[in-house]
Write a structure and sequence with these properties.
2 helices, four-stranded antiparallel sheet, five-stranded antiparallel sheet, mainly beta, 35% strand
């Protein structure tokens, strides 16, 4: 699992979150916003604005393309959490999917206390842990079962070996002919993939 933060950043007339169409394989993207708005588009035809407290879940399966864009009207703070979750063997070759959740389970812990300042910290926990705060705080607790096989990841591709990454790279490079990743109806320019670092110069 890879954590990729959304912000914190300020969305203005001249600065936004815009990330053009790009591919994924072998993972789920989990997007949860604390502040702001982001427009999600993908090759399934999804077009969804995610807002604070809501969650977008996109499953790439064997191939999907998506973009992340400013809504065009929101101005202000943007902050959230993005997780890449490697898919297990039984689902990673399946079809792509998208879900938007407007309400999530809530647990009220009003006994937390006070905190000072703002901080974003990633901590790996083991065993029994006690957490105390001195102001209201947001905690993201992530758990799961270790993957039984090695994972290979390069750029936006999560695979099991270099051959699978090579195949995905070629399919994205030749996407107009291949069709594996579909198309996104986005005004943003498509992001090209760099060649895998283990390729020799001129290798196709």
């Amino acid at each position: 699992m890879l954590r990729r933060p959304h912000g914190p950043a300020d969305v203005t007339e001249g600065a936004s979150i815009d990330v053009g169409p790009h591919p994924h394989i072998g993972l789920q993207t989990v997007t949860w916003l604390l502040d702001g708005q982001v427009l999600h588009r993908d090759s399934l035809g999804s077009e969804q604005v995610v807002r604070p407290g809501q969650l977008n879940l996109m499953t790439s399966g064997d191939g999907v393309t998506h973009s992340e864009e400013a809504t065009g009207h929101y101005r202000g703070r943007l902050e959230g959490i993005r997780l890449w979750v490697a898919l297990p063997e039984r689902t990673r070759r399946g079809g792509a999917a998208f879900e938007h959740l407007t309400e999530l389970p809530r647990l009220d812990l009003r006994a937390d206390g006070r905190q000072t300042g703002e901080a974003t910290v990633l901590v790996v926990l083991g065993g029994e842990v006690r957490i105390e705060t001195i102001e209201p705080a947001r905690l993201v607790l992530i758990g799961g079962t270790p993957m039984p096989e090695p994972i290979s990841m390069w750029w936006n591709f999560v695979a099991r070996n270099r051959q699978e990454i090579d195949e995905a790279y070629r399919a994205w490079r030749d996407r107009e002919r291949e069709g594996r990743f579909g198309q996104v109806d986005s005004p943003l320019p498509t992001i090209e993939a760099p060649a895998p670092p283990w390729w020799r110069a001129g290798e196709a």
